[in-house]
Amino acid sequence: MSNRAPATAAAGAPGGSRLVGMRERARVHGGTVTTGVSGGAFTVTVRLPRSVQ
């Protein structure tokens, strides 16, 4: 996911897990979450392993 980075940070909703929660859920399934700012956009990348059946 990639969104334009706002000029100022918005206040988060109380009680949410946000990025920490995303990282925890990805880790449970053997995945990773990376975040950053590139070209004026805030990016979130989630990588999950594909299960083979």
Q: Gist?
A:
The protein is an alpha+beta fold and 53 residues long.
Explained architecture:
By secondary structure, the chain is an alpha+beta fold. It has one helix and three strands. The protein has one helix spanning 18-28; strands at 2-4, 32-38, 41-47. It has a three-stranded antiparallel sheet. The longest helix is centred in the middle third of the chain and has 11 residues, at 18-28. The radius of gyration is 14 Å and the shape is elongated. The mean pLDDT is 79.
- The secondary-structure class comes to alpha+beta
| Arithmetic mean pLDDT | 79
Our count of helices gives 1
Which ranges are low-confidence, i.e. pLDDT below 50, for 5 or more consecutive residues?
Answer: none
Q: What proportion strand?
A: 25-35%
Largest sheet: 3 strands, antiparallel
- Give the end-to-end Cα distance, rounded to a whole number of Å: 28 Å
Would you list the SSEs in sequence order as H and E?
A: EHEE
Number of extended strands: 3
Q: Helical residue percent?
A: 10-25%
Evaluate the radius of gyration. Answer: 14 Å
Shape: elongated
Strand order of the largest sheet: 1-3-2
